[in-house]
Specification:
The complex is a heterodimer of chains A (113) and B (387).
Chain A: H1 5-23, E1 25-27, H2 28-38, H3 47-59, E2 63-70, E3 73-80, H4 82-106
Antiparallel strand pairs in A: 1-3, 2-3
Helix pairs in contact in A: 1-3, 1-4
Chain B: H1 6-18, H2 24-41, H3 48-57, H4 65-106, H5 112-138, H6 142-166, H7 172-195, H8 202-221, H9 226-262, H10 266-290, H11 299-302, H12 311-315, H13 319-340, H14 353-356, H15 362-386
Classes of the chains: A alpha+beta (113), B mainly alpha (387).
Chain lengths: 113, 387
């Protein structure tokens, strides 16, 4: 099952921030591949959602960038700024809390076994 | 693993640009992304053209420009919050500055003008434009947007008009009248007739329209009418002429009665010089205010009237006038000094508002000069007659 884009949309920022916190610096394609690997293909970030978010986060000062030449083309690496690290933690704990609430709200029984 | 040639990379970049992606950053990101996919997923002898178009299609729903549009809208969304923050910040700062300026003004302490000017300036040029820009964004109908622009222009010009008025800056009346005309003759009818048609906004529209009319009306009650201005100018001019007549008569009398003795008393010669200086100054001020250097009884028919002109405007950037006033001041000090030794009853020191405060009307300055001359004549009479 691949999750719907509505579900991804609300969590995209959190996913980006958490990945960058763990990995240090990453470029766009790397992020999509990493997410695909970690979720066994269940979450596939679209380019149409990922890049606008990356640009907006950069403009907000949450992400910093460095560019490197790969042969003739440029590659933009993203990493967390100081504000970004704090936000990353906040976003993850907010989402953890959200999951608890949703579990309760939707009455989802966790399979403990 | 496929190896991309330089031409293929150039082709991809060109294709991205052709499809409406204009942000250079985004172009380069997409280029790298597509190259990565091709290098990772296309077999060494695969069909580049076909694979490329299949890959790019997965990026969008109807066209590639969507990514650019989404990026731009996210960037604007971020600006929206910055603008809101600046709006609130500038609002708080300007209201504080204005309050501080007004308190200082009423306590008559220095810094009042700075507070008021910065306060109203910030309010009209930062807070209000941002507030209206944000408001426009909330509305979708063109009619609502036009209404907000009209309201914004009248509100900004109105507050700048008041600022210009209290600072005696040129253009204050034009600004205020323009803003009121726009508010009452364009904005209000437009607002009223659009709002009253809708049942939901009907009551609100009527109440707001009454408030706008009352506000504009209250503002206009503070404005002197052109006819009122003329009546006042005629009165002020007549008042000055009465003073001049009194001075002339006094001068004639004293000249005939005591003049022969003037040369024997040095301080009287000094007084005469100052008297002539005052005449010159009056002529200069009159000429600046009315275009004529004397005023006769027929001033009303000839329309030679003393208006609201302020003497500091005349003296500012006019070194000649500043020098003449300074000279008058020093010779009066000398004159008063000489008289201090005289132990005659009735000799008065000559002082004047003109020498301390420049922010007075031309009519007040003219009357002040006449007053100096009357004092000189009075002293002359006391000194010459008793001496």
């Amino acid at each position: 099952m691949i999750y719907s884009s509505e579900l991804i949309k609300g969590t995209l920022k959190t996913i980006i921030l958490k990945l960058l916190r763990d990995q240090g610096r990453m470029y766009g394609y790397e992020i999509t591949q990493k997410v695909k690997d970690l979720t066994a293909g269940k979450i596939q970030l679209t380019e149409g959602a990922l890049y606008p978010s990356l640009h907006a986060l950069e403009a907000e000062g949450i992400l910093t960038t460095e560019t490197e030449y790969i042969g003739k083309r440029m590659r933009k690496y993203y990493s967390l700024s100081k504000a970004g690290s704090t936000l990353s933690q906040e976003k993850v704990s907010e989402f953890a809390d959200f999951i608890q609430t949703m579990k309760f709200l939707l009455d989802i029984k966790t399979d403990l076994a | 693993m496929y190896s991309l040639s330089e031409q293929q990379i150039a082709f991809i970049l060109d294709d991205i640009r052709r499809n409406g992606v204009e942000l250079e950053d985004l172009q380069l990101n997409l280029l790298d992304h597509i190259c990565c996919i091709i290098e990772q997923e296309l077999e060494e002898n695969g069909d580049f053209g076909q694979f490329y178009s299949a890959t790019v299609k997965k990026f969008y729903k109807s066209n590639l420009r969507e990514i650019e549009e989404e990026t731009k809208s996210l960037l604007i969304y971020k600006n929206y919050y910055t603008m809101k923050k600046i709006m609130l910040g500038s609002g708080i700062v300007s209201v504080s500055l204005l309050t501080m300026g007004l308190i200082l003004k009423f306590l008559h302490l220095p810094g009042a003008a700075v507070g008021v000017v910065l306060g109203i300036g910030l309010l009209s040029l930062v807070f209000m434009p941002l507030m209206f820009t944000l408001k426009i964004r909330e509305k979708s109908a063109t009619r609502d947007k036009v209404l907000i622009v009209l309201g914004a222009v009248s509100a900004i010009t109105l507050s700048l008009g008041v600022l210009f008025k209290i600072m005696f800056w040129p253009g204050a009346n034009v600004l205020s009248l323009f803003s009121l005309a726009l508010l009452l003759l364009v904005f209000l009818p437009f607002y009223f007739f659009t709002g009253i048609r809708n049942a939901d906004t009907k009551i609100n529209t009527i109440v707001s329209s009454i408030l706008i009319l009352t506000g504009g009306g209250l503002f206009l009650t503070l404005v002197r009418s052109p006819a009122g201005s003329r009546i006042m100018s005629v009165q002020v001019t007549r008042e000055y002429l009465r003073n001049e007549t009194l001075l002339d008569q006094e001068k004639l009398y004293i000249e005939s009665a005591v003049q022969p003795r003037v040369n024997q008393i040095p301080v009287l010669a000094m007084g005469n010089k100052i008297y002539l200086r005052c005449e010159e100054l009056k002529a200069a001020i009159l000429e600046w205010e009315t275009g004529f250097n004397t005023i006769g009884e027929d001033f009303e028919e000839r329309d030679i009237l003393l208006g609201d002109g302020r003497i500091d405007k005349f003296f500012r950037n006019n070194e000649e006038m500043a020098r003449r006033i300074a000279e008058l001041k020093s010779s009066l000090t000398q004159y008063n000094e000489s008289n201090r030794g005289v132990s005659k009853k009735g000799v008065l020191p000559v002082q004047s508002i003109l020498l301390d405060a420049y922010q007075i009307r031309t009519s007040e300055a003219l009357n002040a000069l006449v007053q100096i001359q009357l004092y000189l004549l009075h002293n002359e009479r006391v000194l010459a007659m008793a001496g």
